[in-house]
Amino acid sequence: MDNSNIAERESVIPYGDLLSEDEIQGVLENSNIVNFNKKEIIFRQNTRTSHIMFIKSGMVKIFKEGRNGKFIILKVSVPNDFLGLLSIYGGDTHHYSASAIQPAQICFVDITIFNKILSSNGEFAAMIIKTISRDGLFIFDRLMSQSHKQLPGRIADVILYFSEVIYNSEEFEFPFTRRELAELAGTTKESFIRTLAEFKNDKIIDLDGSFVKINSLKIVKTLSELG
Questions:
Q1: Cα 189-55-188 angle, rounded to 5 deg
Q2: 10 Å Cβ neighbour count for 140?
Q3: Staple 64 to which of 28, 96, 126, 219, CB 3.0 to 4.6 Å?
Q4: For residue 100, what are the contacts with CB-CB under 8 A and spacing of at least 6?
Q5: Range of 187's domain?
Q6: Among candidate residues 100, 124, 141, the one where a domain is terminated
Q7: What are the DSSP E strand ranges found in 66-148?
Q8: Residues 128 and 82 both lie in one domain
Q9: In terms of domains, do 104 and 172 share one?
Q10: 66 and 101 in a common domain
Q11: Total-model pTM
C-alpha cells in the first residue's frame, strides 16, 4: 500500500491503514463530523455513551468534575486521538467530560459498526486495546503526580507535558487559562501563578503572557523527577 493511500485511510479513522476497503466504507457510511466552538461541551460526565468519537482537527480538554464544583483536567487530546474509549468500554456512562479548547471537528462513528470491525479485525482491535491502556496509564500517572509530588514538580510536569507531548517544542503557548493550568497541576490558581513566576525569576523559563520558552530543559526535568 503506498503512502498516499495509507494517509487517506488514516484520515477516515485512526489506524485506518489496518482496515479493509469494506470496513473503511462501513465507517464512512456510519459516521458524521460535528463542529464545536471554543469551550463548547462535546460530551458531559454522567451522560450515556452512544458513539465512538475521534478528533479530526482542534484540541480537546478531558476533565472530571468532583465535589463542590471542583474540576481536575486529566489530559489534552489532539487530532487523531479517540475520545471517551475508557468510558465506552468500561460502562454505560461517561466518567468524565470533554470540551473544545479551540474550534474542533469531531467525528462520531456508530458504535455498532465499530464493534463489528473490532470483532472481525484482530489487528485493529489490538491497537484499540493499546490505546485504551495508554490512556488509562497516562491518567494514572497524572493522578499519582498530583498526589505525591511537591508543587514545583507538578508545575514542571505541566511544562513538560505541553513541551514534549502536545507541541514537541521548547517554545509554545499555553492553551489554557491560569485556572485551568492549576486544575491540570492539581493546585490552586494562586499557587500555580506563584510557582510559575518563581520558574521565570530563576531563569528556568521565559514567560510572556501565555507564551513559554524553556531555557533549561534539564532543570525542568530534574524538578519533575525529584518531585
A1: 5
A2: 10
A3: 96
A4: 36, 37, 38, 39, 40, 42, 58, 59, 60, 61
A5: 149-226
A6: 141
A7: 71-77, 82-83, 97-100, 104-110
A8: yes
A9: no
A10: yes
A11: 0.85
C-alpha cell, 170 = 521548547
Per-residue pLDDT tens, the chain, 227 aa: give them: 445 555 566 678 999 999 999 999 999 999 999 999 999 999 999 999 889 999 999 999 999 887 777 788 888 999 999 998 988 888 889 999 999 999 999 999 999 999 999 999 999 999 999 999 998 888 888 777 777 888 999 999 999 999 999 999 999 999 998 999 998 888 889 999 999 999 999 999 999 999 999 999 999 999 998 87
Residues 172 and 130 in one domain: no
CATH code where residue 36 lies: 2.60.120.10
Same structural domain, 43 and 112: yes
What would the DSSP string read from start to end of 148-215? HS-HHHHHHHHHHIIIIIIS-SSEEE--S-HHHHHHHHTS-HHHHHHHHHHHHHTTSEEEETTEEEES
| Shared-domain flag, residues 137 and 159 | no
- Residue 195 sits in a domain whose CATH number is 1.10.10.10
